[in-house]
Design goal:
Blueprint (H helix, E strand, L loop, with lengths): L5 E5 L4 H17 L2 E8 L3 H5 L12 H17 L4 E8 L2 H12 L3 E5 L6 H6 L2 H8 L3 E5 L4
Parallel strand pairs: 1-2, 1-4, 2-3, 4-5
Helix pairs in contact: 1-3, 4-6
């Protein structure tokens, strides 16, 4: 197994994403790695409406994104992560996560499985499937929804 130094996980404030944060935090704690929690947001309602994926939680504005990060960081500390950074990025969840992974040269990206088995996910793609295809680091898809 790789020695993970930087682990990225995304959150949108949902229960599902917080389960992924907790799993990533446990791994970060075990490897004494830096956990980078990211949250994507849309700057306007028009930007949000342009996305083809309507099955995901839409974070509108950087204030709600910052609140999501604060909640996720608390959950991460409780799950064992010691070195925690946060990052908000405008854009789609896939764009934001890939940007955070690349900017930080992450070793592992952790995402939940929400959307991967939905009809929309099968036809248009899902966040977990899309980041797994695009990422140049290891990707862990956590079973967060049935």
């Amino acid at each position: 197994m790789s020695d993970y130094k930087k682990i990225v996980v995304g959150t949108d404030g949902s229960k599902s994403s917080l389960l992924a944060v907790e799993r990533a935090a446990a791994i970060a704690g075990a490897f004494d790695a830096t956990l980078i929690i990211g949250c994507a947001y849309y700057e306007t309602k028009e930007d949000a409406s342009k996305t083809l994926r309507q099955d995901s939680v839409t974070v509108l504005g950087d204030d709600p994104a910052q609140k999501n990060l604060e909640t996720a960081a608390s959950a991460a500390r409780a799950a064992g992560a010691k070195n925690i950074e946060t990052c908000i990025k405008p854009g789609t969840p896939v764009e934001a996560l890939m940007s955070i992974v690349n900017e930080n040269q992450a070793d592992l990206l952790v995402v939940g499985n929400r959307g991967i088995n939905s009809l929309t996910g099968r036809l248009l793609g899902s966040v977990p499937a899309d980041v797994a295809r695009q990422s140049q680091c290891d990707v862990m898809i956590v079973h967060t929804v049935s």
